[in-house]
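Protocol step 4 of 5: obtain the predicted structure for the target chain.
Materials: sequence only (see below). No template structures provided, no constraints applied. The aim of this step is simply to have a reference model before the mutagenesis design in step 5. Sequence pasted as it appears in the construct record:
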Amino acid sequence: MNCEPLPTIIQGGMGAGVSGWSLARAVSKAGQLGVVSGTAMDVILARRLQLGDVGGHMRRALDRFPIPGVAQRLLDRYFIPGGKPEDKPFCAKPIPSENPSRHMEELLVAGNFVEVFLAREGHDRPVGINFLEKIQLPTLHSIYGAMLAGVTYVLMGAGIPRAIPGVLDRFAQGQPAELCLDVQGADRNDEFTTRFDPGPFCGGKAPDLVRPDFLAIVSSATLANMLARKASGRVNGFVIEGPTAGGHNAPPRGRLKLSVEGEPIYGERDVPDLEAIRALGRPFWLAGSYAEPGRVAEALRLGAAGVQIGTAFAYCEESGLDHELKERVLAMSRMGGARILADPIASPTGFPFKVLQMEDTHSDSTTSEKRARICDLGYLRHAYKTAGGTLGWRCPAEPVEDYVRKGGEEEDTRGRECVCNGLLANIGLGQIRRDGEQEKPLITSGDDVASVARFLEPGAHSYRAVDVVESLCGTPGP
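Step 4 output (structure tokens):
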């Protein structure tokens, strides 16, 4: 168990690269728990190198990667001094698979190592990393890369992460670990897994590592109780996330009902039983519209260790969100025009997904309909059992004819957005397509975006992570 005092504020793991190393480092240095997103760190590292590694941060971290030869191979393959021409596409990288190549393994492990290393640089405070359970293929390698860099907390939501505590235990001891894959159409006796053995990857015996604490992100006492009793290892705490939080939300319990606007309707059954959660004897944090001093105090009165805050940090100076997008959203918030739609079908995961409504992004149907469907990143693909008994992959946001050819239902493709490419566009890493068009953003935020401009000083156009911390907790910690 981590011996540091528990943080009052956990900075949320928002999207691919939004909660990047710069933001996490700023929050941790302010005395709270900074968290990097572990989503798509392989492609983010590769594209940052192709842009010339402005500031030299990627190369500085890769210089500290402990396994010989890996950093140089990645630099030889991806680094472009001065950056690629603006009108040229990023070069392709392998799509994650259940049996990744050595290159794919190195890109995943190094990508997560780099992000955590940079977040920890220059201070001795804890740093966390956030993963989605629904994105299974990169998980083992990503966790190992984060642990190599000394990550203190691993957080995971968007699913039931029963296996992850045991994975942390095994990696800490230098042992291999496996994950069972969720496969549509699989029989009870089928076993589809992905595996990572740190020994051969490290060139012999893997080093012993410090086991990070594991925090499960859940929406109900039922799930928290199950994980506390039946997970593969110790669950050290919980983040209890409500439906007003950004990103992927748990669907409402019971039969899905939609509002006039087409959003899922949550009811009394979706309110977490905090008394039952307190009875588990594990620390917990509350998430979803808690970025107000009074709400932080309320959470503490209810027995929580603190709160998780996402949206307020997403629009601060240190977040990875594109600078122009941040300015546009803050202006919308200041004018009372920032609106969120909890879209029940946009994400290929099938989870409701909070989407900021803004022109020239994929929340705009005109923009979305212009995009030619393509699935070239593949993080949110679904695994399915083929007629031949092997493992296949399909995504409801890929070309419709491809999805149907793979046995999917055409109905499941309607309204789906390419979340993978949209999230990378959010952080200035959108791909250039053959027609010269650049991928458009798909911005996710919590309901709190409507008033996030409250963190701006009069006349200011930006604010810092420390401003959020001070607003909620007073003077930041050491």
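Step 4 remarks: The longest strand covers residues 127-132. The longest helix spans residues 102-120.
Proceed to step 5.
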